[in-house]
């Protein structure tokens, strides 16, 4: 049962169900594709207008890329300040022909709203905005202090968020960060994530001869770059699935007792998972627990391998160059630059003729302890909004720029996904269930309420 | 100095230098592209007319594919019969824009004739035809018996030659086979080859999930087909360059003393070879002699490896399928089916989830002993035509269907390449030097003369 302060806010949210949905639909009609610089300026301006009207002190902060929207309400002295992060840019909608309804004509079917960006991330940060608005409409004030940070470049890898946060630490001074992004757990249960894996990407390129040659006339004397790369890769990860690059695991922090308890509680329908992807087996090593792999282990994924002939029939060519693209997912407390240095040293040792190419600096992992101060109020907020305890996931599987909060601002950071697990983000027919949107607004409202029960620390 | 019988034939060839060249040019103007079935029927008919007019008993023998041209002169009882093999089909001329002069408009530049098929193989078998014609014009007869077999499907892998030879063993009964095809040794010296490597091709295909997935959300639990193939390949050939498939070397015949002596005599400009291909090193193993690798060792070449993302930048995808294409060059006395069985057993043992795909039956290796009966007359023919001893190459590097002579007809088979080493066969600007064409006719004439000095065996 909601407290006296929260109940009328929930009532307001319920009473405005269709109005809020209409406003979300209107918001989704505006494309804001960062990769193609389509609609970014328009949606940035629209947000400034919307947030100012709600009663937040709002500014559009220019960067060398797309601008940041920063909105604040800080009239609750002695109460914690929560930094709510989201992003107003969306993925390109290609392939268009796979969409049942056009990506920027939001359409409701079977209790879901279909549109590009509805789950990732407009529907989620709009729920946060409506939660703020509902508190202000009902009570004329917020229970705690809020800084809302919406970036416009998340879908192109957040290249400027770290620099922006580093340069604006005073402006963004907060006690915790909360990101509503990504899907809930596959079981459908509400979810809190305490971290995200980092990532680095690199290419391995090998070229021997100056041109392709005939495998009969030259096979045995001319070296083959595909073999060179195969043998190099085989030294980087063994058949048992263990990464064998020297020092790569040096900084891996083992899971805490709370972490292990949390993943043991996570629902797991392994047969359903395998069936859904048509898998006959999981990746090696066979004996490692499912969630342990996703939360606490770095991975070395070959994203692509291309060289020589790939068409029908046979072509007895000995190719002269080949390219491998890889990524490594990092766990706390691996450092992207340190890991890249170790991979580079490994390549130089085992195959100095292979070119090691890095184009991006990568993203740091992030981890907040389950035993941190704001876990309990977050859990209470979920219980208030959903009527059930959220699942606790110690480390998100994919990568989010949460490290800017944990490592640059030095505050705990939580991810509270509002979207359904099958939101199809980055894919055609992206969607969010109407229930998820509604419960997202409630969760956002409950979160502000619960934080308002605390005193600012220190 | 040529013998009394051969000298007037050489004179005739010299006197007709420009006439013969013009006739070659006329022949080359007719495309005969087996892969596209262009001009095959026309050139087949043209050959029948030409060979009949010269005085050979000629027929166009239909097959389920392109017809065989068989022409014979067998009026020298007690003398050996030589089966002269060649092919009247040519490679497609693509890419057309890389040709300095159009492929079917033969053009002379700097002492070379440029046209598709001039080296591979029209210029070479036409030299054999002119050698026969010259003997007949000068002496009214040939010094030995001749069967000329010209196929029209060599450039699409000679799919019917074995069946044809097997079904026509009486028709093709001969004492030796001689093929004028391919380039001379890179040093420019005249060359006799005593064998050719065989070849088998196969694909390795691996598919795990039913779709690509995100490396962050699924990395660690969903298996990666590229890793599966990398680890499988690493069990098939080690970093030292040794093929490690069980039993693969079982049937490899070690080189004879004559073989080793022959390769030790072959000129080798290793620095020039590496420079020409921009190579920093030869293929492993570093200590194996250059010609030993090309003549006596099987090879396992990865022709292509394709899976996942290969474009610019990064894409953190965990791909769901990948394909590897390979060929194995076989040496005497490896059998294609036996080798494919061994590779299949290896794949089934090490990676049963990888699909092993074979579309073609492959080609057997072929080897004739250097110490065989016709080596001496062939060497004398080269000395007569060129004024220098030919190089003896125990086994050709690439694959030719010579096994149909050695293994089906059971006769020794020799390859006497007439084309310059830089003939650019299968490539734009295919060419043959005018000198090579002329010395080819002389070699063909001298060969018939030398064989005429022998009695038919048995």
CATH homologous group name of the largest domain in chain A: Zn peptidases
Major sheet size, sense and barrel closure of chain A: 6 strands, mixed
- Binned, the helix content of chain A reads 25-40%
How many structural domains can be distinguished in the coordinates of chain A?
A: 3
Using the coordinates shown, work out and report the CATH topology of the largest domain in chain A. Answer: Aminopeptidase
Beta-strand residue percentage of chain A: 15-25%
Our Rg estimate of chain A from Cα atoms comes to: 24 Å
Question: How many strand elements of chain A?
Answer: 19
Strand order, largest beta sheet of chain A:
1-2-6-3-7-18
Assembly classification: homodimer
Shape assignment of chain A: globular
What is the average per-residue confidence, as pLDDT of chain A, rounded to a whole number?
Answer: 95
Count interface residues per chain for the largest interface: A-B, 71 and 71 residues
CATH class of the largest domain in chain A: Alpha Beta
Give me the number of helical elements of chain A: 14
- Given as residue ranges, the uncertain stretches of chain A (5+ residues, pLDDT < 50) are none
Taking the alpha carbons of the first and last residues of chain A, their distance comes to 31 Å
Secondary-structure-derived class of chain A: alpha+beta
Shape-level CATH architecture of the largest domain in chain A: 3-Layer(aba) Sandwich
